[in-house]
Amino acid sequence: MVERISGPGAPGAVRPSDGRPAQGPSFREILERVRQEELKISAHAQKRLAERQITLGPDDLARLQRAVTLAEAKGGRSSLLIYGNLALVASVPHRTVVTAVTGEGLEERVFTNIDSAVIISRSGV
């Protein structure tokens, strides 16, 4: 029986696998992507929270992170996050909370150099 031999670009030709899995993102790339998604809190913001004896738990941080993601989706770069009686300013591209103000500090307070605001409920965004 005579079979026709096709070149590598022939329609319907199947190339044999060399046994290696298809190349996807490397572990380092995945780790870096996850790190970039994490919300960071600057030393200044940590100091402000500590002065006011405010502790943010995992649920709080998750809500703040979602708020930053929402601001990012809308093109925000510097966002005011309102969370109960806590106001935080976040650098959206750096995913970092840069300052925090609470309680009496919020009265007659003017926030400048922000381009977006996200109001976060205690039960979610």
Q: Can you offer a commentary on this structure?
A:
- With 125 residues, the protein is an alpha/beta fold.
- It has helices at residues 27-37, 43-51, 58-73, and strands spanning 40-41, 78-83, 86-91, 96-102, 116-120.
- It has a domain at 39-120.
- A five-stranded mixed beta sheet has the order 1-4-3-2-5.
- A hairpin with a 4-residue loop joins strand 3 (86-91) and strand 4 (96-102).
- The relative contact order is 0.16.
Classify the beta-strand content into a percent band.
15-25%
Shape: elongated
Rg over C-alpha atoms, rounded to the nearest angstrom: 24 Å
Strand order of the largest sheet: 1-4-3-2-5
Mean pLDDT: 83
* Largest sheet report: 5 strands, mixed
Number of helices: 3
How many runs of DSSP E, i.e. beta strands? 5
Order of helices and strands: HEHHEEEE
Intertermini distance = 70 Å
Helix percentage range: 25-40%
Q: Which structural class fits the helix and strand makeup?
A: alpha/beta
